[in-house]
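Input structure tokens:
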């Protein structure tokens, strides 16, 4: 279960309090994504679906330098959805893709703070 908890933490790494977000569609979409991902239970397939849909929206408005990072997030979210709440599959996903998604979330998180003026990002 620790690995599943770690997976959930990675998925929500870039989503903190985005109340100070401003600067166009990207920041607005990022705020919606944060709301969908906040407190995400990675085993809840409906919640994962909602987070995936918001991630798709924000990835479309993301600046060019974050497009690849959002692609990684979307691929990861797709795999989490495919796991269908199965703890074993989610644990394997955390092992296989955790190192790949971490830098993507770090880049997204940094940009969110620098550009959207996000002061508090949970990690």
């Amino acid at each position: 279960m620790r690995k599943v908890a770690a997976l959930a933490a990675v998925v929500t790494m870039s989503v903190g309090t985005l109340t100070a977000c401003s600067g166009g569609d990207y920041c607005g979409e990022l705020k919606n994504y944060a709301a969908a991902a906040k407190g995400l239970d990675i085993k809840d397939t409906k919640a994962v679906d909602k987070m995936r849909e918001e991630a798709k929206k924000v990835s479309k408005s993301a600046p060019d330098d974050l497009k690849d990072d959002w692609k990684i997030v979307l691929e990861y979210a797709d795999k989490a959805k495919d796991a269908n709440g199965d703890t074993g599959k989610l644990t394997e996903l955390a092992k296989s893709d955790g190192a790949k998604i971490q830098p993507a979330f770090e880049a997204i998180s940094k940009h969110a703070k620098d550009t959207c003026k996000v002061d508090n990002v949970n990690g």
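Residues 87-116 form the longest helix (30 residues). The radius of gyration is 13 Å.
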